[in-house]
Amino acid sequence: MEFYQFHPTGIAGMGILITEAVRGEGGILKNRRGEAFMEEYAPKLRDLAPRDLISKAILSELKRGNGMRGDRQIDDYVLLDATGLGKQVVEEKIPDIAEFCRVYLKIDPVTQPIPVQPTAHYGMGGVPTDHNGRVLRGEGKGTYAGLYAAGECACVSVHGANRLGTNSLVDLVVFGRRAGRHIAEYAANADLGHLPSGSDSYARDKIARLKTGKGAHGGAIRETLQKTMMEKVGIIRTGEEIRAAIGTVEDLRDQYREARVQDGNSAFNTDLLELLELENLLDLAFVTAHAALRREESRGGHTRDDFPERDDARWLRHSLAKLTEGAPEFSYKDVDTSLFAPKPRVY
Amino acid sequence: MRITFTIQRFDPEKDAAPHFEGYELELPPESRVLDGLVHIKTYLDGSLAFRKSCAHGICGSDAMLIDGEERLACKTILRDLGAADGSSIRIEPLKGLPVQRDLMVDQERFFSAYRSVRPYLINDEPAGPRERKQSQAEREAIDDPTKCILCASCYSACPVIREKNPAFIGPAAVLNAARFVFDSRDRGTADRLPSLDRPDGVWACENKFRCTQVCPRGIKVTKSINLTKRKIESLRK
Question: Do B92 and B19 meet the contact criterion of CB atoms below 8 Å apart?
Answer without folding.
Answer: no
